[in-house]
């Protein structure tokens, strides 16, 4: 963006250059490093109010030197003038360092209808309440952009998820929306080898036929022919594959007070079966 365009946009929308600082420098208890909300100066709020910006307030952040773009929400307007405080992971995603310049522009994003995620490790499959965990963690992300890697937590555990796809646009608003979430197999997931079972054949070798000619009776009547024994069939070494089973996030299989002991014992066995991804509705 050249300087003339920058000045022209000042009267139409919110657009501003800021120097970037880590969110952790403010040492605020309500500032979450795992989300994508930033802290801006008070002057930004005054300008946004005059421009009648739609709520929730969402912003496009660009690294001018690399043209890399992502999106974020805002937590507070308490930073020093000319500075914006961002989560460290968001700075790393944009490729900006402390005190480097970013371009912030207000934007409006469509409501998310579909998001496809991919966990970095298959440990994510062991989360006991994945739907509740995602609904809680997505509350930290007012918007989601395809190509990002976000962090979600469950107790003391931290899981990293790649945002592979978002609909109806590459950047979507994830607040107050009924969104379907699909999961690709984890990055470290290895397809198990096919289960091969050889059919059991006879231990005795086949006996050669004693007589293969045509039989005849002395009185000329027809003789009932016995069927010639066929040689032993080849052993079929291909067995049906292991049945695929879906891991349903948010379904009845999620841990709860009504889960029987037999279901709990079967959960471990189901984890050994193939993971083919699943889809469910996520209410943020």
Task: Explain what you see.
Residues 275-284 have a biased composition (Polar residues). Residues 231-242 have a biased composition (Low complexity). This protein is 15% helix and 29% strand. Among the domains are: 3-107, Barwin-like endoglucanases (Beta Barrel); 109-189, Vcp-like ATPase, Chain A, domain 2, CATH 3.10.330. The protein is of the alpha+beta class. The protein has helices at 3-9, 42-50, 88-94, 130-138, 261-271, and strands spanning 15-22, 37-41, 58-63, 68-79, 83-86, 101-107, 114-119, 143-145, 149-154, 157-167, 171-173, 178-184, 279-283.
Jot down its keywords.
alpha+beta, Barwin-like endoglucanases, Vcp-like ATPase, Chain A, domain 2, six-stranded mixed sheet, elongated
Topology:
Layout: H1 3-9, E1 15-22, E2 37-41, H2 42-50, E3 58-63, E4 68-79, E5 83-86, H3 88-94, E6 101-107, E7 114-119, H4 130-138, E8 143-145, E9 149-154, E10 157-167, E11 171-173, E12 178-184, H5 261-271, E13 279-283
Parallel strand pairs: 1-5, 2-4, 7-12
Antiparallel strand pairs: 1-6, 3-4, 3-6, 7-10, 8-11, 9-10, 12-13
Biased composition (Basic and acidic residues): 261-273
GO biological process, one term: ubiquitin-dependent protein catabolic process
GO molecular function: polyubiquitin modification-dependent protein binding
């Amino acid at each position: 963006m050249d300087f003339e365009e920058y000045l022209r946009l000042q009267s139409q929308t919110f657009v501003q250059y800021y120097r970037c600082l880590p969110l952790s420098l403010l040492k605020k208890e309500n500032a979450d490093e795992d989300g994508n909300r930033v802290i801006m100066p008070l002057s930004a709020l005054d300008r946004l109010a005059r421009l009648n910006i739609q709520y929730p307030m969402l912003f496009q952040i660009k690294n001018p030197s690399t043209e890399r773009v992502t999106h974020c929400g805002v937590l507070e307007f308490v930073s020093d003038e000319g500075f914006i405080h961002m989560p460290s992971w968001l700075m790393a995603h944009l490729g900006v360092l402390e005190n480097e310049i970013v371009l912030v522009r207000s934007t409006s994003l469509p409501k998310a209808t579909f998001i496809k995620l991919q966990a970095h490790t298959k440990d994510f499959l062991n989360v006991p309440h994945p739907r509740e965990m995602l609904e809680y963690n997505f509350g930290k992300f007012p918007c989601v952009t395809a190509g990002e890697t976000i962090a979600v937590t469950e107790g003391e555990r931290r899981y990293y998820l790649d945002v592979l796809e978002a609909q109806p646009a590459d950047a979507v608003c994830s607040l107050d929306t009924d969104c379907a979430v699909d999961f690709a197999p984890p990055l470290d997931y290895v397809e198990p080898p096919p289960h091969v079972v050889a059919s059991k054949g006879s231990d005795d070798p086949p006996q050669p036929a004693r007589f293969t000619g045509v039989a005849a009776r002395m009185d000329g009547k027809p003789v009932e022919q016995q069927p010639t024994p066929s040689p032993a069939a080849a052993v079929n070494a291909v067995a049906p594959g292991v049945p695929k089973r879906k891991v349903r996030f948010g379904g009845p299989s999620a841990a709860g007070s009504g889960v029987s002991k037999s279901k709990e014992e079967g959960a471990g066995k189901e984890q050994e079966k193939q993971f083919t991804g699943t889809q469910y509705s996520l209410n943020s």
